[in-house]
Task: inverse folding
């Protein structure tokens, strides 16, 4: 079984823990048992589709959603063991322990001697504080199976909670003697050692747990806590971060907050106490500590609230803290009563620790780290030679901003700093305009000035700048004219409100929003560099092969992007004016008219030397000063030519003059005058963009409020309607999303992007007819809409119509021949239809575009494997792993290939590597088990098949192989259970499983049941040779002579002659029975 899934995200199952850091671990996932009565086949299939969906969601940690599907499955098939067992686990994860307990009670009625169920029930009881009952269940489990390691772990946890760490440790050792790879046993052992004061040994146990399972969030948290105990507070934080990356828990947030307090980082500490309380509002320890820190930094009003919540949480064993909180609140309330509330509030706002004013200057800022008390960093948008931009969220304003500033070395220059602050003051006073990125305010953080500007979210095709459109979606003449006119309007507005010159006009500074209107970015900020006196020479911003902003103050001063600079900008930038910007925009228009080509180019710097920078600068200076651009056939060329005159006096004097001529040209093509946006449209679009920024940062509720505001100004704002639908989609509220897509369609039925989004939602809902209708509409409206064709192809792939999918991907590749995902999906579709040579051609195309595309190497290997060219396959999988060592699928596929080459030990290493990356990789567990099975290591194989089934309960091969192990070990009852589970999963029509069940019943001497089972096989397949043979043997054993003879004769009429032994036996028994 090959792994050819794409972008499949698997997560390990993490058991939730209670706020007191004490945890009981459920045992191995509950087994399933056969039903005595089966519902109709269609209902059973629906039930298993729902269970399968729930299992997928459970693996992704989406337990609430999984529960919805399990409830639906329960309505269809209320007696299903699989529904109950999965529902019990999901309810446990959701901390609904009483409901989980009820499920386990129902499971025990079906299988009262199942050790896993008893162990899991103990977990629920412990979390409900019913320790004696939990202990009883663990003892029952161990009586049934003295080698059930999970039961020892859970029993140890119960004893640890009772303070008996010595006996708990002996139970953990017992568990590890049974299963040395049981990470939870090491974790629990570490916790008991930690509680006993043996910190060093505890850390060793946590390290061992993490070596076995790098996704054990509790082990990271517990190790971090040990570091705290040892006083290594800074060193502890990465362990808490890793724990939180895997699972957001109260303990990790609380323990990290304690580290931060010891490091005097109070603002961050308060943030983490808040996170702990969000998860568990009654976490007494977090509430009390939070109040203490709020007092330390002067936030007395906040402290009052935290102390009150602490007292309301009914804290246990915290009498001293209760006394402190009660006394402080009495004093506080007395102050309020005496009219001192104003003073208290003043203190709360004026006393702030210095550490609140720290901003991260490294580009490696993690998502949602706090910059200050005010802002939350999402990511660094840009970190260049001159400046740095942060995408942030403001809790105070519930808004998304881009915080911009210069790099430290420039702000240390008094002239640049002064000029930047003055420029910021001008920009923030400029009235809003639809074609200008809005500047909201200037803020100082650690005495460093920042300007907060509007965030322009990416639109369709994942683009949000003219630079991107020129690369991937070059505008036609009409679109170019519209954008050029909008740019002129924006520049007129800027220049009429105190801006003398932009200095840095280029496609990357012309942003384009979802509504396809432009916004001028970074207005005049670059001009601050003209005051930079701490440096003499030339400084270039050179990133990813592109030269951006440059500054030179030798023989005059030059400032701008050299490929867009007017001649005067190279020598006397201080004297530049509107006509300078007109020249730069002329180059931008040239690119719009020529599909991105620059009129003047020079070889980019070959290295970082001053000589290469100077060469580049001087070459562009000469070209911009003396050369005219290559002539274009575009109607825009006469306007471009005038913009690019070398003498400023020969250019357009003002953007208004250029705009009026462009508007005349546009009207000659469209017959209509260009109409600027009205105020209501501007308001509506601003709220739409505001909401889109919030949605990009996953603040969906706030985003939808913004879209509602936009719709108040314009109820037919299709963009706001579509974005609100997308929010519901992101929240997986698909029915609500469809409703809002319908509204967006009504507002703008000609927008292909709305049809595409709606189609994708239907595809996710598996409503494929509706999805295809949407994609067809999108592609008819815009035959060059690559995204619509691509998603339509994906939808065809989903229903396994690969040839139709290939046709769609061909359409994508006609539009964009370098669309890697379209090449990949086309190759995968060819591979799945068995056309391997064409698939290999597709993968070759990908590797020409990107030789390091590891997924392509993996799929290429699958093709060679399917062609039985194992050596070539092995080379491909090895290459994929060189590029991406953590590529679990390639490790698995390499193992499968090595197995076929007879290199079993190396194959085993590959499966183990895959499982190290993804411990829930069902196929890897299965194939690892097959190796053990084939070498007679049945117990080891059995363990692997159990792990495979736990990861994927629908993996039929694992159930069959597990049954084979159990049969070889003489455990027929357990093997029978496996076959019953297969029958339940695959309905009554799985004759192989039913036949095997009959054979197990025969081995157990349950002969009448065996006979009925073989008869069931023959009802489904009257020519099943071996069902007739085994039925005859069973009937012989129960002395039904006539029936036995008839069955043997039927067997003899069907059996091929090579089965001599069985034929001889059947003939002999017929003779003997005839004599009786």
Result:
């Amino acid at each position: 079984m090959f792994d050819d899934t794409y972008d499949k995200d698997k997560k390990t199952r993490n058991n939730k823990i209670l706020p007191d850091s004490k945890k009981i671990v459920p045992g191995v996932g509950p087994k399933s048992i056969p039903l005595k009565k089966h519902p109709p086949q269609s209902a059973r299939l629906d039930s298993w589709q729902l269970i399968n969906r729930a299992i997928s969601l459970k693996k992704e940690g989406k337990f609430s959603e999984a529960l919805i599907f399990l409830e639906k499955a329960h309505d269809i098939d209320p007696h299903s063991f699989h529904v109950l067992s999965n529902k019990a686990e999901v309810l446990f994860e959701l901390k609904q322990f009483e409901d989980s307990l009820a499920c386990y009670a129902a499971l025990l009625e079906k299988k009262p001697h199942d050790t896993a169920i008893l162990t899991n029930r103990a977990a629920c009881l412990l979390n409900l504080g019913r320790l004696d009952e939990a202990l009883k269940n663990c003892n029952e489990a161990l009586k049934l199976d003295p080698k059930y390691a999970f039961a020892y772990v859970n029993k140890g946890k119960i004893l640890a909670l009772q303070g008996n760490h010595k006996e708990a440790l002996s139970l953990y050792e017992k568990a590890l003697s049974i299963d040395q790879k049981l990470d939870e046993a090491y974790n629990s052992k570490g916790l008991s050692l930690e509680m006993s004061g043996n910190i060093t040994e505890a850390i060793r146990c946590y390290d061992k747990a993490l070596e076995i399972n790098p996704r054990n969030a509790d082990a990271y948290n517990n190790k971090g806590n040990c570091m705290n105990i040892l006083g290594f507070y800074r060193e502890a934080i990465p362990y808490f971060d890793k724990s939180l990356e895997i699972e957001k828990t109260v303990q990790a947030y609380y323990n990290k907050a304690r580290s931060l307090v010891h490091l005097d980082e109070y603002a961050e500490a308060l943030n983490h106490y808040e996170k702990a309380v969000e998860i568990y509002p009654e976490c007494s320890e977090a509430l009390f500590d939070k109040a203490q820190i709020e007092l330390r930094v002067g936030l007395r009003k906040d402290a009052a609230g935290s102390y009150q919540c602490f007292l309301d949480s009914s804290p246990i064993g915290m009498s001293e803290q209760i006394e402190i909180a009660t006394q402080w609140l009495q004093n506080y309330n007395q102050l309020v009563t005496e009219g001192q509330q104003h003073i208290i509030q003043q203190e709360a706002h004026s006393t702030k620790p210095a550490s609140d004013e720290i901003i991260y200057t490294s580009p490696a800022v993690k998502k949602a780290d706090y910059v200050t008390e005010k802002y939350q960093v999402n990511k660094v948008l840009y970190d260049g030679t001159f400046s740095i931009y942060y995408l942030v969220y403001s809790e105070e304003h519930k808004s998304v901003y881009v915080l911009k500033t210069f790099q430290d070395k420039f702000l240390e220059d008094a002239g640049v700093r002064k000029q930047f602050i003055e420029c910021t003051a001008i920009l923030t006073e400029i009235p809003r305009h639809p074609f200008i990125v809005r500047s909201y305010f200037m803020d100082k953080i650690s005495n460093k000035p920042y300007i907060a500007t509007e965030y322009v979210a990416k639109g369709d095709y994942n683009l949000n700048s003219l630079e991107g459109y020129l690369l991937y979606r070059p505008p036609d003449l009409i679109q170019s004219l519209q954008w050029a006119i909008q740019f002129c309007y924006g520049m007129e507005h800027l220049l009429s409100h105190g801006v003398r010159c932009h200095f840095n006009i280029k496609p990357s500074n012309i942003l384009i929003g979802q509504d396809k209107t432009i916004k001028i970015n970074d207005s005049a900020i670059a001009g601050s560099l003209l005051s930079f006196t701490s440096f003499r020479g030339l400084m270039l911003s050179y990133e990813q092969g592109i030269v951006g902003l440059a500054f030179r103050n030798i023989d005059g001063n030059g400032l701008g992007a050299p490929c867009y600079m007017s001649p005067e900008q190279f020598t006397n930038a201080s004297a530049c004016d509107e006509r300078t910007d007109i020249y730069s925009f002329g180059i931008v228009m040239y690119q719009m008219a020529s599909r991105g080509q620059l009129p003047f180019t020079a070889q980019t710097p070959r290295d970082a030397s001053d000589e290469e920078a100077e060469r580049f600068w001087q070459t562009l200076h000469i070209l911009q000063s003396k050369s005219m651009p290559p002539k274009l056939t575009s109607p825009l060329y006469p306007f471009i030519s005038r913009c690019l005159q070398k003498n400023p006096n020969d250019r357009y004097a003002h953007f208004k003059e250029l705009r009026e001529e462009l508007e005349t040209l546009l009207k000659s093509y469209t017959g209509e005058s260009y109409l600027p946006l009205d105020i209501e449209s501007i308001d509506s679009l601003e709220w739409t963009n505001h909401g889109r920024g919030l949605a990009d940062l996953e603040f969906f509720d706030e985003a939808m409020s913004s879209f509602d505001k936009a719709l108040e100004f314009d109820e037919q704002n299709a963009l706001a309607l579509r974005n609100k639908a997308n929010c519901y989609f992101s929240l997986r509220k698909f029915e609500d999303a469809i409703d809002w897509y319908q509204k967006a369609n009504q507002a703008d039925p000609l927008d292909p992007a709305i049809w595409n989004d709606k189609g994708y939602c239907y595809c996710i809902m598996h409503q494929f007819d509706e999805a295809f209708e949407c994609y067809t509409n999108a592609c008819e409206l815009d035959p060059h809409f690559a995204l619509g064709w691509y998603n339509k192809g994906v939808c065809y792939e989903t229903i396994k119509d690969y040839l139709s999918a290939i046709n769609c991907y061909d359409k994508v590749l006609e539009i964009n021949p370098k669309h890697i995902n379209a090449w990949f999906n086309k190759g995968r579709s060819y591979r799945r239809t068995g056309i391997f040579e064409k698939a290999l051609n597709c993968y070759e195309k990908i590797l020409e575009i990107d030789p390091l595309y590891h997924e392509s190497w993996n799929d290429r290997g699958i093709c060679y494997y399917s062609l039985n060219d194992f050596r070539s396959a092995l080379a491909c999988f090895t290459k994929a792993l060189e590029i991406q060592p953590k590529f679990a699928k390639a490790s698995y596929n390499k193992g499968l290939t090595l197995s076929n080459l007879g290199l079993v030990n190396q194959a085993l290493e590959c499966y183990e590597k895959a499982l190290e990356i993804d411990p829930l990789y069902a196929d890897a567990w299965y194939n690892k088990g097959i190796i053990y099975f084939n070498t007679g290591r049945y117990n080891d194989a059995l363990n692997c098949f159990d792990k495979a089934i736990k990861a994927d309960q629908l993996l039929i091969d694992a159930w069959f192989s597990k049954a084979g192990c159990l049969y070889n070990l003489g455990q027929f009852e357990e093997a029978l259970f496996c076959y019953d589970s297969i029958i339940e999963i695959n309905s009554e029509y799985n004759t192989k499983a039913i036949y095997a069940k009959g054979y197990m019943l025969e081995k157990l001497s349950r002969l009448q049941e065996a006979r009925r089972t073989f008869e069931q096989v023959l009802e489904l397949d009257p020519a099943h040779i071996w069902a007739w043979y085994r039925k005859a043997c069973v009937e012989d054993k129960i002395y039904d002579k006539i029936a036995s003879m008839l069955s043997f004769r039927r067997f003899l009429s069907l059996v091929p002659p090579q089965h001599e032994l069985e034929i001889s036996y059947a003939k002999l028994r017929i003779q003997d029975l005839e004599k009786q």
